[in-house]
Write a structure and sequence with these properties.
mainly beta, seven-stranded mixed sheet, four-stranded antiparallel sheet, about 0% helix
């Protein structure tokens, strides 16, 4: 069983920065991809940023140039650095991993609130 634990959320003013962390139980090198999603109140969950096992990254258009996804194999942690935060970035941010067999696992999320 895979466990993902997010941290780093909080309240920040518009224009500020946060770094979210996703700590995985066991080696992240066994996953085909790891992805950050977010869900704002009343909205569907959406992809924010992802990184494949090979290191390829992708970002939602809404965060391109403001967010960076990275990983640390030594600590089995995936990060999401978010800069120039906007009120519309307010959401619960979830970490997801996908195994090579196509199974998805989710963390419980961390709340990011951006005040104007």
């Amino acid at each position: 069983q895979v466990q993902l634990v997010e941290s780093g959320g909080g309240l920040v003013q518009a224009g500020g920065s946060l770094r979210l962390s996703c700590a995985a139980s066991g080696s992240i090198s066994r996953f085909a991809a790891m992805t950050w999603y977010r869900q704002a109140p009343g909205k569907q969950r959406e992809l924010v940023a992802g990184i494949t096992n090979g290191g390829n990254t992708n970002y939602a258009d809404s965060v391109k140039g403001r967010c960076t996804i990275s990983r640390d194999f030594a600590t089995n942690t995936v990060y999401l650095q978010m800069n120039s935060l906007k009120p519309e970035d307010t959401a619960v941010y979830y970490c997801n991993c996908r195994t090579w067999g196509g199974v998805h696992y989710w963390g419980e999320g961390t709340l990011v609130t951006v005040s104007s």
